């Protein structure tokens, strides 16, 4: 880790505990793998294994910055990971990106079958809303606000809309604003909502929420640029998913529009802007600074 | 319509107004067809067109029985229809039932493409939870209870689980209890939840809720037996979907296990039991009696 903050290791030391909380919350909302129909429930759990859980960590980091207890963040952290997991299962389907490899293992439709993968994605989405609605640590007003925010981020004006635009854009050369708009929806919306959920858990002021949202938007875009860069320069073993896919699918990417070096510079500037936004939030910014560093340094 | 009740025409006369309310609520929660990405939004609306909207009518009928205003039922009625619509779009996919015809028109993946159909189903599910979370006519506690009930009914212990069992049961001969358990989940859970949502909107007593649930369970099972019967005896033009599918897919059905005549008798007895349950509810049972008659007499 770099040392942009003297307390750079503080959030780091709590990450394992947060990941354990995420695992426990996910385990509690999903029926046991032996529950009838067992093959479906086994596949649901398979789809949730692995992954870096950056979105959950963003919920915990943003919440910690605002002084929220972990209990009040568990459902939110779990819900974004469930939406993320569902989107990966469906994006990998033969009728979509048709991918065999995810998180270094066979995709759900490869490990099971296509019908099961469709149903796994469907029920992971259901569980995301269920975990918010059944939290013991949030009041009803917070639950409703979180469900609205998550639905907006993941629906046709957010993540799913971005995926639709992405598929329609194969073999087209997009402009930079078009590419940014696509990714603000496809990956950005779900990253942004982690900050919004934390703000709801904190009953934050509008100013605080806006500051957090600016952080979230910068991280979301930087994350995607970095993803495009990694797709081009990393190998499949490191990524845990098929490398070089963008080129194979003739997709516009930040490196293809800006050149590799300028894309990397743009991501760098966005991470800096995110850190500036984090420092401007009334709270203890260290978790958000750590997360910006952590994401910036990932190699997959 | 039969005249099991002297007021048998009263709910009937309000059905067009209820269907208009459903259309308005659905129209408001879905982005306009011209919204970017337009192809996706067009396909989402295509998937919601047509259909008998029996589930929405059950919400309105059960709510009317308990004295709930239509405003307090709109979101619930819309949410079950959105879940139903999403499930049809995904069930029809090539990786699932692979069907070309639905509601007398090409299925979504035929009219558009497979990727679009996956995303349409995904976002219809999202919209179902969104419409409950954004209702102006419910308090937050009711919204949360409804979202929990809908998630339970549509998830892996309900509708999606039933679909998984159904697909796993092709070419198997089920026992009658196994077949009933399958359909209690696949179609029954979403019919049952219409009664539960109405009970939540009414802040009903436990006794009332249980009475309504008994009505809902009887209707749900009767509806499915009737579906199996119609699949065997009706033609594709009348059904608006492919007839004779159960036989072609070697599925156990109520007629295949009980014989056609006994299956029809069992449905008849269940409709009678539903009417008895309706008369036992503290309220104005006529809407529920009308609905039982209406469903019993359908030919598609």
From TrEMBL, chains A, B:
Membrane-spanning segments: none
This protein's UniProt keywords: Isoprene biosynthesis, Magnesium, Metal-binding, Transferase
UniProt cross-references to Pfam families, sorted A to Z: polyprenyl_synt
SUPFAM superfamilies, A to Z: Terpenoid synthases
KW GTP-binding (keyword) present: no
UniProt keyword Zinc-finger, yes or no: no
Cofactor: Mg(2+)
PANTHER family, A to Z: FARNESYL DIPHOSPHATE SYNTHASE (PTHR43281)
Family according to the record: Belongs to the FPP/GGPP synthase family.
Protein name: Polyprenyl synthetase family protein
């Amino acid at each position: 880790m770099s040392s942009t903050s003297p307390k750079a290791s503080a959030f780091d030391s709590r990450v394992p505990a947060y990941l354990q909380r995420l695992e426990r919350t996910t385990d509690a909302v999903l029926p046991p793998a032996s529950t009838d129909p067992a093959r479906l429930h086994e596949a649901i759990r398979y789809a949730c294994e692995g992954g870096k859980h950056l979105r959950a960590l963003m919920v915990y980091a943003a919440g910690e910055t605002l002084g929220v207890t972990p209990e009040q963040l568990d459902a939110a952290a779990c819900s974004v990971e469930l939406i993320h997991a569902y989107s990966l299962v469906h994006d990998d389907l033969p009728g979509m990106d048709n991918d065999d490899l995810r998180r270094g293992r066979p995709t759900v439709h490869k490990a099971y079958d296509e019908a099961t993968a469709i149903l796994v994605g469907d029920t992971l989405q259901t569980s995301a809303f269920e975990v918010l609605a059944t939290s013991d640590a949030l009041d009803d007003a917070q639950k409703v606000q979180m469900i609205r925010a998550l639905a907006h981020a993941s629906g046709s004006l957010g993540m799913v809309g971005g995926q639709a635009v992405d598929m329609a854009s194969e073999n087209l050369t997009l402009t930079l604003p078009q590419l940014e708009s696509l990714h603000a929806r496809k990956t950005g919306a779900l990253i942004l909502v982690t900050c919004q959920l934390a703000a709801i858990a904190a009953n934050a002021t509008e100013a605080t929420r806006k500051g957090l949202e600016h952080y979230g938007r910068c991280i979301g875009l930087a994350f995607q640029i970095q993803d495009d860069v990694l797709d081009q320069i990393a190998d499949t073993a490191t990524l845990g998913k098929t490398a070089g896919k963008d080129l194979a699918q003739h997709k516009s990417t930040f490196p293809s529009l800006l050149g590799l070096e300028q894309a990397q510079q743009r991501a760098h500037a966005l991470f800096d802007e995110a850190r500036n936004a984090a420092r401007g939030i009334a709270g203890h910014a260290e978790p958000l600074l750590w997360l910006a560093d952590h994401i910036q340094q990932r190699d997959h």
